[in-house]
Recover the amino acids of this structure.
């Protein structure tokens, strides 16, 4: 299989909080080796507003609506640690999930479009600050540390 064409990918992610935690999906490669975490979301389609893409991603993946609670922080993410380098422009929205059940579970799995599963969990921001687990996109951790 050939590498995808070089392109900048626009992405919308949702930052849900539960006390001192954020909701994050595990990023892994190879035999499910954890390489980091990032808030859930998805790619923005051509001519689709970022907020609409975020709502769509949560409906498709979580089966629930989200309330956007503020303007997005915007990050440029350059990642060349994998087989195919990635260049993303990330719109990170503060959100609240409308389904309470996700706040009541510490971790759960979501079915991906390719038939695989992604682990989603509430991660202590302190673990991220301590460098125990890398958070993507780069720059998001500094943003989370700012007073709200």
């Amino acid at each position: 299989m050939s590498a995808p064409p070089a392109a900048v990918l626009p992405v919308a992610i949702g930052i849900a909080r539960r006390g001192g935690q954020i909701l994050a999906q595990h990023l892994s490669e190879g035999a499910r080796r954890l390489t980091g975490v990032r808030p859930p979301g998805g790619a923005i389609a051509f001519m689709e507003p970022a907020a609409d893409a975020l709502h769509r991603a949560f409906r498709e993946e979580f089966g629930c609506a989200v309330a956007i609670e503020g303007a997005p922080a915007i990050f440029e993410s350059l990642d060349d640690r994998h087989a195919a380098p990635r260049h993303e422009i990330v719109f990170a929205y503060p959100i609240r999930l409308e389904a309470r059940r996700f706040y009541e579970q510490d971790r759960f799995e979501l079915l991906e479009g390719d038939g695989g599963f992604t682990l989603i969990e509430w991660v202590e921001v302190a673990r991220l600050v301590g460098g125990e687990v890398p958070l993507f996109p780069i720059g998001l951790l500094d943003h989370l540390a700012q007073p709200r």
